[in-house]
Design a protein that fits this description.
The protein is α/β, with parallel strands linked by helices. It has a domain at 1-99: Metal-dependent hydrolases (TIM Barrel, Alpha-Beta Barrel). Helix content is 37%, strand content 19%. It contains six helices and seven strands. The protein has a seven-stranded parallel β-sheet. Strand 5, helix 5 (132-140) and strand 6 (143-147) form a beta-alpha-beta unit. Helix 1 (13-25) packs parallel to helix 2 (45-55) and helix 5 packs parallel to helix 6. It starts with 5 loop residues before the first strand and ends in a 14-residue tail after the last strand. The model has no long low-confidence stretch (mean pLDDT 91).
């Protein structure tokens, strides 16, 4: 299929160690280490220290997946925001981009990023689902967007499709989040 490189993204502290190990032994794999917002209630100071330690490895290309998820509220919102701030600052110290997770939290998430505007090192919005206005704010902060197969769901994604059409090609990535978010007609 012509795939030359895989970027493997961590979810929690255990998967940070695993993706870093995988990237050390597989030359076609790069790692992204960080703590997902769903894990915010369980994240400890030593976990952030471990993310920083792993983040210094050359095979680790970014910090994440970090951000805010208010869809299910599986973690306290204040803990999510605290951890998001910490990981943004960590990425800045390491001069690494960030992989952003945003679900039903767009306004607060972009406000947090704007608070850090001077220290941001860019990155990508994983599974971008925003509208044109959100896209414009993300691009202004130096981010790219990654779109999943859900962009093909014509009945629900008119605003997303409009944003994707407006995105400069050099800031647009295509992703998979297998087995979820498959394109139509493979949904479900």
């Amino acid at each position: 299929a012509g795939v030359e490189r895989v970027v493997c993204v961590a979810y929690d502290i255990a998967s940070c160690d695993e993706v870093a190990r995988l990237a050390r032994v597989e030359t076609s794999v790069s790692a992204v280490v960080g703590i997902h917002p769903h894990e915010s209630d369980r994240a400890r100071a030593e976990d952030i220290a471990r993310v920083e330690e792993l983040g210094r490895l050359p095979e680790v290309v970014a910090i994440g997946e970090t951000g805010l998820d208010f869809y299910r509220d599986w973690a306290d919102r204040s803990n999510q925001e605290r951890l998001f701030h910490e990981q943004i600052s960590l990425a800045a110290r390491l001069a690494k981009p960030i992989v952003i997770h945003s679900r039903d939290a767009a306004e607060r998430l972009i406000a947090v990023l704007e608070e850090h505007e001077g220290e941001l090192t860019g990155g990508v919005f994983h599974c971008f689902s925003g509208d044109r206005a959100f896209l414009d704010r993300a691009l202004a902060l130096g981010f790219s967007i990654s779109i999943p197969g859900t962009v093909t769901f014509s009945k629900k994604n008119g605003k997303l499709a409009e944003a994707v059409r407006a995105c400069p090609a050099d800031r647009l990535l295509v992703e998979t989040d297998c087995p979820w978010l498959a394109p139509a007609p493979h949904r479900g």
